Amino acid sequence: MPVSHFDYEAKLADCAQTNHKALQDLFHQEAPHMLALAVKMLSQRDDAEDIVRDSFVLIWKNSASYDPKIGSARAWMYSIMRYRILNRLRQSGRPAPVDAEWIDNLPDSAVVDPETSTPRSLAQRLAALDDTQRRPILMAFYNGFTYDQIAARLAVPAAQIREQVRAGLSTLAQGEPA
């Protein structure tokens, strides 16, 4: 779990100003979590280590392009790694597995649960979604599948998949249970 007072946005801003210590701080804070997720997605530690290393190079080079209006800095970092992983899997011809247990390794994006006034992480919110919404979202996120590809794999119309993903993402954005 990340340290609650760690300021990812400030560290990325410092990286954009070529502050090497900020990159080192980001690496020490997040690399173990990223490596755990990469190993789970790739099933090969050497590949996972390469991906994490490459991801931090890209984080350094692209830190000035991070926009806090788009999402959290931590999620931005993980999206860089996710694209690297998907590219590696495509190049090797290996499919990305779609396991709901990956939810536990997603970066937290805590929101307050309106019923209990306690923070709910992205993992908790994803787990609360109905499987008909959660599964297509995970297939799109982890496998990079299009609506049509998800529809073919789940044997449902693409329009239905679009609606399930839209509804699921809306629920996630609101931080409410499904």
TrEMBL record:
SUPFAM superfamilies: Sigma2 domain of RNA polymerase sigma factors, Sigma3 and sigma4 domains of RNA polymerase sigma factors. Residues 121-169 form the RNA polymerase sigma factor 70 region 4 type domain. Gene3D superfamilies: 1.10.1740.10, Winged helix-like DNA-binding domain superfamily/Winged helix DNA-binding domain. The keyword Transcription applies. InterPro entries: RNA_pol_sigma-70-like (IPR039425), RNA_pol_sigma-70_dom (IPR014284), RNA_pol_sigma70_r2 (IPR007627), RNA_pol_sigma70_r4_t2 (IPR013249), RNA_pol_sigma_r2 (IPR013325), RNA_pol_sigma_r3/r4-like (IPR013324), WH-like_DNA-bd_sf (IPR036388). Pfam families: Sigma70_r2, Sigma70_r4_2. GO terms for biological process: DNA-templated transcription initiation. The keyword Ion transport does not apply. Residues 26-94 form the RNA polymerase sigma-70 region domain. GO terms for molecular function: DNA binding; sigma factor activity. Keywords: Sigma factor, Transcription, Transcription regulation. Belongs to the sigma-70 factor family. ECF subfamily. PANTHER family: RNA POLYMERASE ECF-TYPE SIGMA FACTO, RNA POLYMERASE SIGMA FACTOR SIGZ. NCBIfam families: sigma70-ECF. This is RNA polymerase sigma-70 factor (ECF subfamily). It comes from Paralcaligenes ureilyticus.
